[in-house]
Write a structure and sequence with these properties.
Largest sheet: 6 strands, parallel
CATH topology of the largest domain: Rossmann fold
Number of strands: 8
Shape: globular
Low-confidence stretches: none
CATH class of the largest domain: Alpha Beta
Strand content: 15-25%
Number of helices: 12
Strand order of the largest sheet: 3-2-1-6-7-8
Radius of gyration: 17 Å
Structural class: alpha/beta
Mean pLDDT: 87
Oligomer: single chain
CATH architecture of the largest domain: 3-Layer(aba) Sandwich
């Protein structure tokens, strides 16, 4: 296992950095915001709590929560326009600095493509660098499920995305940054995991992550070291 010093060196020399989105790049959880917007916030929050503490797979939890929300295309678009996701302080500067260094930045999220695209646009991250879940709608705009072929729709999906990136682009060092257990589980195949607790602290991640930060300025400072 790499030491903290080794992990910092991996971060400084990384080819690619993958960020989780909900509660990492943005301050909120997209599915919870969508549930509140559609009037089922409390019921979905309770379902999330049960899923976190039990042995429910990510896909089963996602299916159940979306089955309760059943968001229409119009509702998703209105959520984004009326309550746009709020960027976490420091993320804009960090992504800009990584881009200046020629590092590829990816958004790897269990959230929804349409919301993540809005975030990517603000950070100058190309749409091709997004891996997220895609909602499906009928012609009349009603909810029709989600694309179950996306790797991020199931447990272990973020690791699959990193494996795919390494195979496709021949990256030598890929860093994963996020607040949750699914982010931590992506390393390996990721070469370094940085736990983020700036918006919400997940006890398991804080205890197990060798490198744990609460503000993106900490990572900017690491990049300035060199």
């Amino acid at each position: 296992m790499a030491s903290l010093l080794e992990m910092k060196e991996i971060f400084r020399s990384a080819d690619a950095v993958c960020f989780d989105v909900d509660s990492t790049v943005i301050r909120e959880e997209g599915i919870d915001e969508l549930a509140k917007f559609c009037g089922v916030g409390d019921a979905v929050a309770e379902m999330t709590r049960r899923a976190m503490g039990g042995s429910v797979t990510f896909k089963a939890a996602l299916t159940a929560r979306l089955g309760l929300i059943r968001p229409s295309y119009e509702q998703v678009q209105k959520l984004i326009s009326d309550n746009p996701p709020e960027l976490t302080p420091g993320i804009r500067e960090l992504v800009s600095r990584l881009h200046q260094r020629g590092v590829q930045v990816f958004l790897v999220s269990g959230g929804f493509q349409s919301i993540v695209e809005h975030v990517a646009l603000q950070l100058n991250i190309p749409t091709a660098n997004i891996f997220a879940n895609r909602l499906k709608f009928y012609f009349n705009g009603e909810y029709a499920g989600f694309d179950e072929t996306q790797p991020t729709s199931e447990s272990g999906g973020k690791g699959k995305v990193i494996t795919h990136l390494k195979e496709q682009f021949h990256f030598k060092k890929v860093v994963m940054i996020g607040d949750g257990a699914t982010d931590m589980e992506a390393c390996p195949p990721g070469d370094c995991f940085i736990g983020f607790g700036g918006n919400v602290v997940r006890k398991q991640v804080k205890e197990k992550a060798k490198w744990y930060i609460t503000h993106f300025d900490e990572l900017l400072k690491e990049l300035e070291e060199r």
